[in-house]
Specification:
2 copies of one chain form a homodimer. Chain A has 13 helices and 12 strands. In chain A, the strands form 2 sheets. Chain A has a 6-stranded parallel beta sheet with strand order 2-1-3-4-5-11, sandwiched between helices. A 6-stranded mixed beta sheet of chain A has the order 7-6-8-9-10-12, with helices on both faces. The relative contact order of chain A is 0.11. At the A-B interface, helix 5, strand 2, helix 11 and helix 12 of A face helix 5, strand 2, helix 11 and helix 12 of B.
Chain lengths: 338, 338
Amino acid sequence: LGRVTLKDVAAKAGVSYQTVSKVINRTYKVPPDTEARIWAAVSALGYVPDQQARNLRSQRSRMIGYSWQSETPPETSSNVQNVFLTAMVEEAAAVDYYLLPFSHPVRDAHVEDYRRLIGSGRVDGFVLSSIDYDDRRLAFLLEAGFPFVGFGRSDPDLDFPWVDVDGALGLKLAVDHLVERGHRRIAFIGWPAHSRVGDTRLGGYLDAMRTHDLEPEPELIARGASSFEFGRDAVARWLDFPTSRRPTAIVTVSDTLAVGALDAARSGGLVVGRDMAIIGFDDDPLARMVWPPLTTVRQPLREIGRACIEILIRLIKGEPVEHRQILMTPELIVREST
Amino acid sequence: LGRVTLKDVAAKAGVSYQTVSKVINRTYKVPPDTEARIWAAVSALGYVPDQQARNLRSQRSRMIGYSWQSETPPETSSNVQNVFLTAMVEEAAAVDYYLLPFSHPVRDAHVEDYRRLIGSGRVDGFVLSSIDYDDRRLAFLLEAGFPFVGFGRSDPDLDFPWVDVDGALGLKLAVDHLVERGHRRIAFIGWPAHSRVGDTRLGGYLDAMRTHDLEPEPELIARGASSFEFGRDAVARWLDFPTSRRPTAIVTVSDTLAVGALDAARSGGLVVGRDMAIIGFDDDPLARMVWPPLTTVRQPLREIGRACIEILIRLIKGEPVEHRQILMTPELIVREST
């Protein structure tokens, strides 16, 4: 069984050798249907570009592909993503690599972007962000045997290199802190059901509550968009409850949600830090600029970025990786909101 | 006079042909002093890598280098820079290009990064951010004749393609709005003297004040770091003035400064929007999340990014560019802080 060549791909796609080369090297635009046919042939045949020829030419690309799921509009994009992107650019530069960032609005369309970047030899490996359950990118990259590291985990039984913050521990730190201060009716505002990070953090909240013999109440759990408005509206609804059913404290999964919660409490005539406690997550610069400054769970984004790059470079070089799955410990930063 | 070749560079640097190739193609690390010697030789000889050979291989890189001056630590970096970076990644992708981002803590060291990226054929052009007076990158790129566009202007007599927001107009919109609401003692918080953007915006403030027959008072002008703390401390000092000398309104050059100002006013027992008016700049997501929500001057970052990419692609293709210097109009977003 011979090696699959560019010519095999051309024959299968019914186009010329040159056209395949143009598409794979991304040097010219070809009609979309032609391009689709070529990538289908690449995929069907399991064609791998001539790595040896590419190596002769330039050894390695010294580029790392980095992608994340973009939100619309980008002006509302999470500051965590933005700060992480900047940190990754600098951590890559520190080991003499460049970052090649790209975003994807729809996860399914996204595997094509990875296939192209591999096919054209543009990158030596990937760092993946915005990972969720059943993430097609993971299956694709594992099958392709191409070096990558995830910022975040996926299905528990999927074994791949990742670095993540211990979000469940973060929520536990938040709940413990509130219980210590005498709170018992502690509400939770988090991301939608069936989101990987949302489930992990909700789990941390539920476990921590039960540890303190507090039964979490479904009416004090709000899950939805990670927006200022969602946090504000959730708290506004709770403030309409009779006093006995109202939460006295709120934990959230992002500072943006917490600032929304803070806004609703203030609108409702409460003094946050005295009448109600609110805890954020991220330690976004925003957290210390609002009034009262937010108690929050700090993510070590810089350290996560550095660990991702370190693992990836070892994978690229084929060196052994001692710790290929790293769960980083978050830190509770206590400020006036609690 | 023959074309300068890799061999000439090798001879001048006193290293082998292979070593020069490794450095220029950035495929291997060589000792720093050797690398410095090679780049010095490249520079001295005016060596230009064999563009034709490179073109044969891959026509264009389809990559755009994008750099900005990084702040330390990156967690405090301006959200404007972060949002612009994300917008640029997506605007480049829309025309089938990738962005190659890199940051530089010290401007002087930075020309080397540009030289390397050009030398290794990694990018087809650059978008420059964090531009200031006497920016060495501009002189270097103009001399090299390499395609680039600036997000921002430099010395008025330096002719290069740029896209910028009309910061002076932004300050005028802010001052006009405050004068309309009856304010006369309007203070200014901005960036340091001798910074290009800082001077432009201060100029806009001064002109607008004089248009309304208001003589700007030196004691009501604070220039320094673009931080929450600088904004807060400036206002705290003004609140110590006797009432007749206190400002009743404040214009700033960033939302971060404005939020600091807001914090000081609140600490001083003032209700912002009633006892004091404060205006930000940027329309950062932060602006609508603080209390009271900030009136601010919105920068059309997405449109600026799109225009930068459009001009650059034309320059790369050698196509005529109708508008190579575009001054975009900012918009005043009125909220409760005024």
